[in-house]
Amino acid sequence: MSDEDETALKRTPLYDLHLGLGAKMVPFAGYEMPVQYPLGVLKEHQHTRAKAGLFDVSHMGQVVLRARDPQAAARALETLVPVDVLGLGEGRQRYGFFTNDHGGIEDDLMIANRGDHLFLVVNAACKQADIARLRAALEPDVQVKEITTRALLALQGPAAEAVLAEHYPAIAEMSFMDVATLPLGGAECWVSRSGYTGEDGFEISVPEAAAADLARALLAHDDVEAIGLGARDSLRLEGGLCLYGHDIDSDTTPVSAGLTWAMQKVRRPGGTREGGFPGAEAIFSELAESCAQKRVGLAPEGRAPMREGVEIFADKEGGAPVGRVTSGGFGPTVGAPVAMGYVSTALSTEGTVLYGEVRGKRLPVRVAKLPFVPQGFKR
Amino acid sequence: MKFTEEHEWLDADGDVVTVGISAHAAEQLGDVVFVELPEVGTSVNKDDEVVVIESVKAASDILAPIDGEIVEVNEAIVEDPGKVNEDPEGESWFFRVKAEDLSQMDDYMDEAAYKNFIG
Known about the structure:
The complex is a heterodimer of chains A (379) and B (119).
Chain A: H1 3-8, H2 15-20, E1 24-28, E2 31-36, H3 41-50, E3 52-56, E4 61-66, H4 70-77, E5 92-99, E6 105-113, E7 118-122, H5 127-138, E8 143-146, E9 150-156, H6 160-165, E10 179-184, E11 187-192, E12 201-207, H7 208-219, E13 224-226, H8 229-238, H9 280-289, E14 293-300, E15 311-313, E16 323-331, E17 336-344, E18 353-358, E19 361-368
Chain B: E1 2-3, E2 8-13, E3 16-21, H1 23-29, E4 32-36, E5 43-44, E6 49-55, E7 59-63, E8 68-73, H2 75-79, H3 83-86, E9 95-99, H4 111-118
Antiparallel strand pairs in B: 1-2, 2-3, 3-9, 4-6, 5-8, 6-7, 8-9
């Protein structure tokens, strides 16, 4: 990498803390981010599932939507996402995605109703495009404000609640996908009970000046370790969660991606606010008639990981590919390789044995249920 | 013990050369989760891809550092790939090759030169 590229990389408010912890830093979505700490990817993964892991996700985009009438902001956002935003209660969050005219997914995001405004968390690599899309569609009636003065931390794992309760006991009252404004580390934090690991946990938007101190306070707990992007990826993969740009993109639709659960009834055919988002026609036609390919879990039967790009075949020899792996690697909790990808709908039934071509050899892989590990959410 | 620029080590006992990866390489790879070894009896030429090793991060090939015939492989690291990270320059060797021409080892670095090479 040239010096120019390095200087162009942005740093999060926790950059110095990462270096102090001995992190290996890598460029990711325009930021210098920790891919792993001295503990290593495998142990970081296992620690998060057993206790609690602290992630710096400050590279993600944080956006506030505000209108004189909060309902107007929700109504406006519904023109971009096939999600019931108007029906999202105050203090609640839900998953969604921006669609395009073909019904493809432009980005996935979290949408929180924080009373007088909506708070969105979008992917780092897509945030400029997302903000431009929001501005073009919503302004001037709705103010679109990128929040650049806050870090975003995620505390994930079965011990997350107990760790945060030492700072704020009432945290235990929050349920999965609740959001609240809480004082943590002496700062006003915007907290949601959610995450990207398949475990119970919290995401904490914290003013940047208070971020490193809060992170240090959380890391001081015996049950908490700092976790890098490497383990974040294997955790979310075992959790069956999509990575934008890999498992979902502008060519995959919510129907083929198996994400129709995020499209509430009111936005579907026959609903009171049916359609009205980009690509509604294409998505509704797939809902009625099914689609060519579906996203599935893929469990290689041998030990060789099947990584992104591996082609899937119906037979051990010959024939054209019937699918491809979009994310894959070793699942430390499963103790075996795990993957997800797209296969022909006719071959997408759980238990179907297909073949992934790895280094010229076709190795058996079974269509598997997602997630690969039980979810630890506190509903 | 000799080292290659590909971060393999070679240790000759007579004309049988044991091959593994350096501690530096094991650390750079991260946690190893999969190892595929050649079959005993395979004839290999220098720079043939003989081993596939996958870590939590990526897949890498290991090249034969010398011409010869594979006479033994370390099944223990296939059963438990994590062993590669535990003792890469000792117990977790990869394969043994009966060398055709031991002078091929002369091109490789000694330990001091390798340490200098990895900085």
